[in-house]
Amino acid sequence: MKNSELQNIKQRYNIVGNCDALNHVIDVALQVAPTDLSVLIIGESGVGKEIIPRVIHDNSPRRREKYFAINCGSIPEGTIDSELFGHIKGSFTGAINDSAGYFGVANKGTLFLDEVGELPLATQARLLRVLENGEYIPVGATEVRKTDVRIVAATNVNIQKAISEGRFREDLYYRLNEVAVQMPPLRERGEDIILLFRLFAMQMAEKYKMDRIQLTDEAKKMLMKYKWPGNVRQLKNITQQISVLSPERIITPEVLSQFIPQDRESTQLAVVNPSNGDHSFENEREILYKILFELRGNVNDMRREMGLLKKQIEDVQSNKPATTIIGSTAASSAIHPIQAIQPIPTMEDAIAEEYIEPSPTKENLNLNDLSRQTLIKALERNNGNRKKAAQELGISDRTLYRRLKQYGLNEE
Questions:
Q1: What angle do CA 123, 118, 38 make, to 5 degrees?
Q2: What is the average pLDDT across 138-149?
Q3: Which helix (H) or strand (E) holds 151?
Q4: Residue 90: other Cβ atoms inside 10 A
Q5: Please, what is the average pLDDT of the chain?
Q6: 8 Å CB contact between 375 and 404
Q7: What's the rounded Cα separation, in Å, for the pair 227 and 232?
Q8: pLDDT tens-digit map of 182-231
Q9: Which residues contact 113 (CB under 8 A, 6 or more apart)?
Q10: Residues paired with residue 111 on neighbouring β-strands, in sequence order
Q11: C or N: which end of the chain has fewer Cβ atoms within 10 Å?
């Protein structure tokens, strides 16, 4: 492609940058535009994948037909089939009219399916049929309809990994991937980072009638060393923040460091267990159980004191010597008869957690042994899954954990 043609495309779609990888993407988009091949655009979030489908459509024979950009990740799973393929009246609650869906409305045009990796498997099967023979069935309908739609898809997920995990159909991937376009991340675009910063700063200055911010040479180097995990979107946000919040118009590394995260390798907000790369939740789980056991103890103490209080009131009402409440600051002579005491409301889990140590009689020992065997069998039936075992036994996870500790099964 001639350099003049390339610059015309960039001006038309407000594409900023001169790196070879970006120029190659635009060149591939223009070459594939006259065909009907499906295009899969691959790239990280925020790299500007949504521009390429528009370039393809506007330079194709379908440019006078309709173009729809659909974010597959933002449509609920229960309605996405209806959105894409339409439905007939009465097919589900709320279907008061027939709907053609995007594939019906965009006939002869182009559909851009953004975040295609988020599609449910059932919808993927429907999409595969459209790509293979142009046929689809609206929700609730029995007749097959035809459509002629060009598909351009984009994803920021690892499709190969999604296929291996059973979250994406391999046959659909090959149908979408007739032509693959790899969008370069911002960190690999070199001087384009400075050009984009200058563009966003100029836009802010013109929009809000303020002086444009400018970078020193050291600040430019700092920008180009940063990894930009959020890509162009993150660069634009930071430029806008600096334009509004910084009193300085000449941006030095010291000013820039106030707006750029210090961890260049990731966007992680907090370092978890920095001394060990493999984080474990065992400690947190133990702490949580200790807190729950303490709460259980408090509930049991409260119940015990309430029982003693009831006994004391009954003794007062029947003119019997009052029973002393251990730990109570009130003297027995200061207690007046109470006609009724409302029980303290407790949650189901709190009731389930109450535990009173039984006396070591033979019957109790037999019951404990039977309960222990029941618990072991439940764990065996559920392959050691404690949550499923608890559900089978009709007890809470915390009760199961307490019984494991009681029967010495926690370490088995």
A1: 70
A2: 94
A3: strand 150-155
A4: 11
A5: 82
A6: yes
A7: 11
A8: 999 999 999 999 999 999 999 999 999 999 999 999 999 999 999 999 99
A9: 70, 72, 119, 127, 151, 152, 153, 154
A10: 68, 151
A11: C
How does residue 319 score in pLDDT terms, banded at 50, 70 and 90? low
How far apart (Å, rounded) are the C-alpha atoms in residues 32 and 178?
Answer: 10
Enter the pTM of the model.
0.63
- Does 277 have pLDDT greater than 80? no
- CA 59 – CA 55 distance, rounded (Å): 6
Residue 103 · residue 139 · CB < 8 Å? no
Token pair belonging to 302: 């409260």
Averaged over 344-356, what is the pLDDT?
A: 43
Strand partners for 39: 152, 179
Contacts of 370 (CB under 8 A, 6+ apart): none
Best CA proximity match to 147, nearest among 163, 127, 171: 127
Q: Token digits for 283?
A: 């400690």
> Which positions ≥6 away from 396 have C-beta within 8 Å?
348, 349, 352, 353, 390
Q: Which tokens sit at 2?
A: 């001639």
Q: 20-32 and 51-58 helices cross at what angle (nearest 10)?
A: 40
